[in-house]
Amino acid sequence: MQNKYSFQLKSEDKTRDFPHKLLLTESELRSPDHLLLKFLGYLIFFRERIQIDTRLPNTPVNFAPDIAALDYQLHPE
Fold first, then answer.
1. Nearest Cα to Cα of residue 76 among 39, 55, 23
2. Can you give the chain as a three-state secondary structure string?
3. Can you tell me whether residue 49 is helix, strand or coil?
4. pLDDT digit of tens for each residue in the chain (77 aa)?
5. Dihedral pair phi/psi, residue 70, rounded to 5°
6. Most buried among 21, 25, 44, 66, using CB within 10 Å?
């Protein structure tokens, strides 16, 4: 069974323009605790072009970090 968690985001800080809504899905590999840590990491390290569960291009290892920000050359920042 997959549970979906929807977060409504709003920032009064003009330098942090959060997306309006964030949706995270639980699975057998992701417990609610894991999703909470991923959500808090997203908020703490928020910056432009941050992504959740993105595949890193041009890497020989099949690895998807929980959160990553890629620059314009698609390298992790």
1. 55
2. CCCEEEEECCCCCCCCCCCCEEEEECECCECHHHHHHHHHHHHHCCCCCEEECCCCCCCCCCCCCCEEEECCCCCEC
3. coil
4. 578 888 898 888 877 788 888 888 887 777 888 888 988 998 888 888 888 888 877 777 777 788 888 888 887 78
5. -105, 140
6. 66
